[in-house]
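Hi, here's the filled form for the chain we discussed.

Project: internal
Contact: R.S.
Residues: 242
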Amino acid sequence: MYFFPVSATYVLDADPFQERHMGWPRCLVLVRHAESEGNIKTVDERASYGVSTHAYALTERGRKQAALTGEYVERRFGPFDAYYVSYYTRSQETMKIMYPDVRVYEDPRLAEGQRGIFHTMTTEQIRRRFPEELERKAREGLYHYRPLGGENWPDIELRIHSFLGTLSRDYEDQSVLIVVHGHWLLLFQRLIHRFSIEEAVRRYKNAVVENASVTVYESAVARGKSRLVLQGRKVVPWVGKV
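And the returned structure, exactly as it came back:
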């Protein structure tokens, strides 16, 4: 069963990095969802698939990945104080396999970026019907471009800012597990580590976050302020087993 957290807000909170927000989760574990139908299709195949991107189910390989990652996370961290997913099927299925009997909060701020017409039209279809959109995308660049019916990267970052406010307000010194999406995780880390737009684009193009991989942050005080600090490198528990 999935619950909407009572404390969730859909208005941008005050900057969670300000000194007055001193509380962060003691342990924050981010798991990218396991392999889904969308991960094994090309961009044009997904556009022609006939299933909404939020409804993509896990593949059989993805279910095995989720099970192995769940075993690793439970063995290392045990139970958490809170569990979060987006409303996407692949996120919810991953969590259900990892922790089948826990109370899970569903939060729309965790959704993957919305690509608008690029979800439902092939590149050739867009070139024929909306050639100016491809020109605008090339001119504005990946970070700034907002496709018809979709979001640009700053839009996603606003959602993440709001969710960071919930984490700092409601889960000080607690442990939280979130099943996330790849692009969402990239922009989450851009905000936490404050790297540049250019670096974010480079990582988007070159640094793929594996399905069912584990990224861990812990709270620490640096220069008198509470921060989320990355603990080591991401772990992919299923590699060599699936």
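Let me know if anything looks off before we file it.
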